[in-house]
Design brief:
By secondary structure, the protein is an all-alpha fold. The chain folds into 2 domains: 36 residues; 156 residues, no CATH class. Helices cover 70% and strands 0% of the residues. Helix 3 runs antiparallel to helix 4, helix 5 crosses helix 6 and helix 6 runs antiparallel to helix 7. It is globular.
């Protein structure tokens, strides 16, 4: 048999090239919508705030009001911070952090109660309220972690690390946690002033089209 009698392998034309111009335009539009939905999923999980975010807002506001009235309620805010952090971590990191941070949060809540009980009478006589960040730092980190977009950013990394630092301060002996709370107040201002503009610039960059 000569070389010219060998069978020719069949070839296939991709279906996209057989579509009409209107069908191809619709496919491109659907692809853009899908990519937009995926971006929304990366931002807020299901493309937006869900019932949990809406229900947490008044609860956080009421707890903040209670803590301002009575700093002893700061112990509750520690467990709120722990719950928000565990909610936002991925399953692997949640399993790693759950046991040590829960134990540290229990210790921190107990030490906060003892600290407020000892400091409140002294502050009352001096006329100065007790505040080393106890009344707002845990709730600040809890709220920002709960509502921040689900995408990598400098600010989200900072807030996650700060939350772990506050919770882990319960493992320090005595009132060592007070130094961590005090230092976090000053460091938080400087870090956010630097990192938030970087995140704004990064998110404002237009996406580059892919060239084939």
């Amino acid at each position: 048999m000569s070389a010219y009698s060998e069978p020719i392998s069949p070839f296939h034309v991709s279906a996209v090239y057989l579509k009409s111009p209107s069908e191809q335009k619709g496919s491109r539009q659907n692809g853009g919508n899908d990519s937009g939905a995926a971006a929304g999923d990366r931002m807020f999980g299901n493309g937006g705030y869900n019932w949990l975010h809406l229900a947490a807002l008044p609860l956080l506001a009421v707890l903040y009001w209670l803590v301002q009235k009575n700093p002893a309620f700061s112990a509750i805010s520690i467990f709120v911070l722990l719950a928000c952090l565990m909610f936002r971590l991925d399953p692997a990191r949640r399993r790693l952090a759950l046991a040590p941070l829960t134990f540290a949060a229990i210790l921190l809540a107990g030490r906060l109660g003892q600290f407020v009980a000892k400091a409140a009478p002294l502050a009352g006589r001096a006329g100065v309220p007790v505040d080393i960040g106890l009344t707002w730092l845990p709730l600040f980190f809890a709220a920002t972690i709960l509502y921040m977009p689900q995408r990598p950013s400098y600010s989200s990394n900072l807030l996650t690390a700060g939350s772990v630092l506050l919770l882990a301060s319960g493992l320090m002996p005595g009132e060592g946690f007070a130094a961590i709370f005090n230092a976090t107040q000053y460091f938080l201002f400087i870090a956010l002033v630097i990192l938030l503009p970087l995140d704004f610039l990064y998110s404002a960059e237009p996406s580059q089209p892919l060239h084939t």
